[in-house]
Every structure is written in structure tokens, then in C-alpha cells.
Amino acid sequence: MKKKISLIALLLFCASCATPTVVNVIGPNDSKMNCKELSAEILKANQYADKAQQDKKVGKPHNVGAILFFLPGYGVTLKNIEEATKAAKERALHLNKLKEKKGC
């Protein structure tokens, strides 16, 4: 029983690390969007990138906890943040190219 409780506690602890949203670069309906929808999606992608960069700050509670109690978790968090930032920027670039093709 103690093993199960310990395992559940460990899983919850690991899941509490920062996990910014990693967006898909190309969406299934991107080419069907109009100019206004593309602009909204670009804004959303930029917000995801900004949120990921905010999660990177060492002073954030989840980062302090990861550094103090589970250092490998901090490394995983940083890797995930970089992946999320890169995907959001690539999505915004992709959508901007679509806007140019449509003459927006």
C-alpha cells in the first residue's frame, strides 16, 4: 500500500512541472481560414510562445520546486519550453505565409 501511495505521489509531483502547450505547426483547416481567422490564429500562436517563455523564468514556483526537489524535472521542463516556443513560432510563420498567399 505504501508503494502505491508513494508511486502516486511521485507521478503527481512529476506532472506538476511546467508543461506549456506545444501547438501543431500545420492545422487541418489552415488553408480554409479567411484573413481575420488567420490573424486570430497568429495572435494565439504568439500568446503560446509568450506563455512558454514566462514559464522559463527560474523564479516561478514550479521551477523552484523542480530545482530543489527534482532537478531532472527542471531539465525536462526547459526542453519542453523550448519545443513549445519553437512550435508556436513556426506556426505563426506558417500562418503568415498563408496570409501572404491570400493577399491579406
Characterise the protein shown here.
This protein is an all-alpha fold and 104 residues long. The protein has 4 helices and no strands. It has helices at residues 2-15, 35-55, 61-69, 71-102. The longest helix is centred in the C-terminal third of the chain and has 32 residues, at 71-102. The mean pLDDT is 79.
Count of alpha/pi helices: 4
Radius of gyration: 18 Å
Average predicted confidence as pLDDT: 79
DSSP strand content:
under 5%
Q: How would you concisely characterize the structure shown here?
A:
By secondary structure, the protein is mainly alpha-helical. Helix content is 73%, strand content 0%.
How is this fold's topology laid out?
Blueprint lengths: L1 H14 L19 H21 L5 H9 L1 H32 L2
Name the features.
104 residues; mainly alpha; elongated
